[in-house]
Amino acid sequence: MSWFLSHPLTWLVATLLAYRLGVHLRDRTGHPVAQPVLVGVVLLAAALVLLDVDYATYAEGTTIVTFLLGPATVALAVPLHRQLGRLRGYALPLVAGLLVGVVVSVGSAMLLVRLLGGDELLARTVAPKATTAPVAIALSRTIEGVAPLTAAIGITAGILGAVAAPTVLTWLRVREHRARGLATGAVSHGIGTSRMLHEHPVEGAFSGLAMGLTALATSLLLPLLVPLFLR
């Protein structure tokens, strides 16, 4: 049994099956909570705890999945290329909205931590939460945060965005597909983008664009914003 649990293929297959089950539940139920990533995280976390398997063993078995995240992210340019015509006359409000979004995201996270009694280290850790995990980890190290915790918070933000963003945007009467995609991609990066690709091709394309531009803008602005909000 120990050989089976420590074998790399075990957790690779388990990850693929958990995600596939999540896709099946989403397609059958249509419920916002039935998101493949969320279902997969819950099932795999429960399995690791119940079977007493450490994360290092799991990570070793799913190295190929981690590696493929890079090409998968780059591939998000394909749906955007198909929607290039919709960018006409939208570039200025798009850039302005994302810049404001970065300032609000970083500032609100850091101020909320300090308001609730958190220390400066935690405030630095949550600051890059709206960027995709590899960028968030690098930024967290740059501003002296706790990189693994930043990654966990970022993934949680992505899952929450994927679950709640379409519903919240509908409640707010945001019906324009480009705006819905940009809003979701700016706060819940790749996980939210996968949800928007399922919702509508335009929303998915603009969510992918927002994810990339938010990571770029956050990388440029974060070193300036962190000292400002820690005063």
TrEMBL record:
Keywords: Membrane, Transmembrane, Transmembrane helix. One of its GO terms (cellular component) is membrane. Its main location: membrane. It is a multi-pass membrane protein. It is found in: Membrane. The keyword Membrane applies. The chain crosses the membrane at residues 6-21, 33-51, 57-78, 90-113, 149-172, 205-230. InterPro entries: CidB/LrgB. PANTHER family: PLASTIDAL GLYCOLATE_GLYCERATE TRANSLOCATOR 1, CHLOROPLASTIC, PUTATIVE SEROTONIN TRANSPORTER. This is Unannotated protein.
